[in-house]
Amino acid sequence: MRSYITFDILRRVMSDYFNFDIFYVMNITDVDDKIINRARRNHLMKQFRESNPSNEKVLQDLDVSLKNYREKLLKTTDADKRVMINKIL
Hints:
Elements: H1 2-17, H2 31-51, H3 55-75, H4 79-88
């Protein structure tokens, strides 16, 4: 709540006192979304492992996925995205 009030005061001072045109966008992120996504990802991995019990099969699928991801990376024109993905890979 404190951050909302602080930014509202700053916005009002900038617009009313200094006559700046302010375009204020607020992003509200819920931590629960991250927890839900992680649980979903873990559940999907568990299902994948149950359907493909062999480690060799899992490694083969990972190799294919990485190959496809690299090919997609080569097609992107966004330099920042390339740098980020290269760090990951």
